[in-house]
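re the bet — no i am not wrong, look at it urself. input seq straight from the record:
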Amino acid sequence: MTKALGRLGNDRMRPPIEGKERKLFPFFVHHPYHPLQEHPTMKLPTPHDQLGGCFWLPRLIAKARLLRAGKLPQDYARRFCAPTGVDGHFITFFSLTREDVLEAALLDDASILPWFQALPIVNPASIREWNQIAENLGRPGFPMEDRLPIAKTTTYAHVDTTRVETIFQMIELDEAQVVAA
């Protein structure tokens, strides 16, 4: 981890925000609070929730709708469709852009699945492939393997991540703790 952090240099660190503590890594922020605590009515679909058999799609659309409405917490909004996060991996895999997702978020619920299925790359095989990758994000040999250890010690330092092996597990554990609190 020291090697990865050393490449960033101090110029990449962001200054602290009043009442919020930033540590070590500019994209992973450890806070003494959780963004969902400020928005207790915001219930995002879990990473494993599916639409058309596809993981992450319901969550991405829900976040896009909240962002458009100005109701997505700042920590989530800042990372929405960031290339190194799950959103970014999803849109890259399915040849989408952030703007495509924000535009799709304007569709009613019944129109989301037909929109998604009409994408040239979307078919049962590509959905199975994405689901395989998505469920394993953070594991050795899969995307985000370098980010998981950093996230465990920064953004998710408040969560017992000793048994967490994937990004999906970490998000689900973190958000379950907020709901239980």
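see?? Residues 167-180 form the longest helix (14 residues). told u. also DSSP finds ten helices and two strands in the chain. so pay up
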